[in-house]
């Protein structure tokens, strides 16, 4: 009996062990678990990459599941840029960046930070850019900024700011006119009466005001109805708040899967790559990218685009890659592609290209720009051309109507179909069709002339 009961107790204990272990990591399996975790963390650190770009050392620890700042001795050189975006860091303790005194930029966006201790950024006197957006900060003391006299850019949006008395000094600092790029876009999440207001704009006098007594929330209940997400109802989405911005190796904005129905405003002029894929953007409008002078990659694939306005891509002189695939584009309007001097890759697949005269511009432009690798330019309609490469359609169109052309010019070769589309022919035609933009009078070349 005794034996059985002690066996019972023993087996019960065995059963309970895994549970008690989880709560007491200091014992038995728990210790091994902790040790395992430690090695895992240590392994995670060297997993980061150290890179030199334009003579500056970057340490890239993005998306490494880190829950603490890797010690500075880990790296062979002092980094200038430390990228810790998209990890699991919760607290920035005093002296967290000891040994990182050479940093000029620090990216801590998309972590789980709820607390920044006052001395967290001690020693970062060179720091000019600090990214804290998309964390879980409710409050931040102005003291944390004091060690960083050179700070010019501070991102704080995407945190649930509690606009109460403890934020008073920080908010007043952000509102100093010379601190123009500190805390732009950040908004109060509470109290209700200030919800949705920008830290830049909230009246500091309101922060330390006695709140309405809890029993009489009159003022609080009628007003907030107007404040509920005002930015989403009235204004166009803003790129900085709608997208994630990464600094390495070049400035890149990820705006994919955001439910955007239009191109967000305020794309900064230093963005090199922008991903707008998997949204519901139905058209590109003139000036959508007018500030984005540095863009090299533009990805608008998997949207609902039907219309691309003529001036929407103008000014994108450095664009290399343009992905328009999987949209609802039927043709590209005359002139849309004119500024894309350096384009090298153009993705066009998954669009219902219509093979009638309106598609000719696209083909002419591609012939004029033989360096552009393109894909997916296939007729979807009319039915008889379904699946045919658009270029073939245009060639057969040109072969098929020599008479029409005879009327417009007297070219001795044009009756011989084999001589159609020789490079010279194409070139001559193109020169007429596509003069440099400053010489062009677009109305003169409208499609109706030949259709
Ligand atoms: C654009 O985004 C899609 C979807 O995320 C991706 O498959 C494609 O490779 C991207 N295009 C370019 C040019 O990077």
From TrEMBL:
The keyword Ribosomal protein does not apply. One of its GO terms (cellular component) is plasma membrane. Residues 1-22 form the signal peptide. The keyword Signal applies. Residues 401-417 have a biased composition (Basic and acidic residues). Residues 159-209, 351-402 form the LRRCT domain. It comes from the Eukaryota. Residues 401-423 are annotated as: Disordered. SMART domains: LRR_TYP, LRRCT. PROSITE patterns: LRR (PS51450). SUPFAM superfamilies: L domain-like (SSF52058). Keywords: Leucine-rich repeat, Repeat, Signal. This is LRRCT domain-containing protein. It comes from Labrus bergylta (ballan wrasse).
